[in-house]
């Protein structure tokens, strides 16, 4: 194991007796990296002038070089470090907005995005694209999903709707791993389709990217790609990268926070957006050292997380007489598991209240997803749990969740009791 027991939780801060099977929302940061971050913070606070003039730019460059190698980018200039994937989306969508306001795009030109796109990204599309005259086409994805072909088929239909309107599709926003419900999207196939159909640019939102699924810029071929590093790559919050393909002719990309470095290129602009705490962005090299102490490095961690989350998901589905939300090959380190229909989950509010009940009564932290029943469906599963697996998780975390749901079912609990 090269020095780390991957079943040990002692390397991570964790509330005693809490079964946290929700790494996907906020990630986790080991104690050694928190210590490294504190050293950066103290270095800055003790002599901020020297830190800014002599250390910050060099430190950010070192982190960018690590990320460049991790994602197989051609050049470090293609990598900018930003706070999170939502910031990266704002940078790309801001550029699209300028395309409309400057007359390069016509009113009604389209942006294609998945129906299950992250809520903040949907709002960003509304803020930057819809309000300046852009038309948004949502790809309606089935859930539960049974095959990659279903996703590809719906994506082709959405692009066809754009072409039939007679307008250009200026941007496709494609999730690599959707958040809720969680499904791995065949990004390479969808990017290839975009190229064939004349979509101007492709932005892959991979908030769950590095450390969760294979990330290779040359293989994926998108114009823009973003991933958080605080979700699955053990960084403290918040740090992400935005890849911008160097061959891309569009250079009108700027950080939404305008500071002294404006006009010096996105990577340089993003490295200084005013006085703030940059420590999370500076510990990336130390995180890589931590990851490499595990057998197989990040590849080994991803493989084990995938295998373990599938095994635990199947265990839960079997225990409850339900099913998974996707085939195992369409999940990474997260998987959707159907909850017993008798729980009576009938709205989004029920999911939040049930999640709170699991947290407060059973010390289980897990997000719940509501899937509205379709016409003519009877006694269908309307609630799904999104379970994550990270190196600190143990089987007991999932057995505890299983037993908590079984206890609720046995005592006749239903979400109607929340009313």
Question: Would you summarize the structure shown here?
Answer:
This protein is α/β, with parallel strands linked by helices and 419 residues long. The protein has 14 helices and 12 strands.
Question: What would you say this structure looks like, in words?
Answer:
The chain is α/β, with parallel strands linked by helices and 419 residues long. The protein folds into two domains: 34-289, Type I PLP-dependent aspartate aminotransferase-like (Major domain) (Aspartate Aminotransferase, domain 2); 295-418, Aspartate Aminotransferase, domain 1 (Alpha-Beta Complex). Helix content is 42%, strand content 13%. The strands form three sheets. Strands 2-8-7-6-5-3-4 form a seven-stranded mixed beta sheet, sandwiched between helices. Strands 9-12-11 form a three-stranded antiparallel beta sheet. It is globular.
Summary keywords:
single chain; 419 residues; Aspartate Aminotransferase, domain 2; Aspartate Aminotransferase, domain 1; 14 helices; 3-stranded antiparallel β-sheet; 2 domains; alpha/beta; 7-stranded mixed β-sheet
> Quick one: biggest sheet?
7 strands, mixed
What is the helix content? 40-55%
Q: By helix and strand content, what is the structural category?
A: alpha/beta
The arrangement of helices and strands along the chain is: EHHHEHEHEHEHEHEEHHHHEHEEEH
Number of strands: 12
Taking strands numbered 1, 2, ... along the chain, how are they ordered across the largest sheet?
A: 2-8-7-6-5-3-4
Outline: globular
Identify the CATH homologous superfamily of the largest domain: Type I PLP-dependent aspartate aminotransferase-like (Major domain)
Task: Note the gap between the termini.
Answer: 50 Å
The CATH architecture term of the largest domain is 3-Layer(aba) Sandwich
Provide the residue-averaged pLDDT.
92
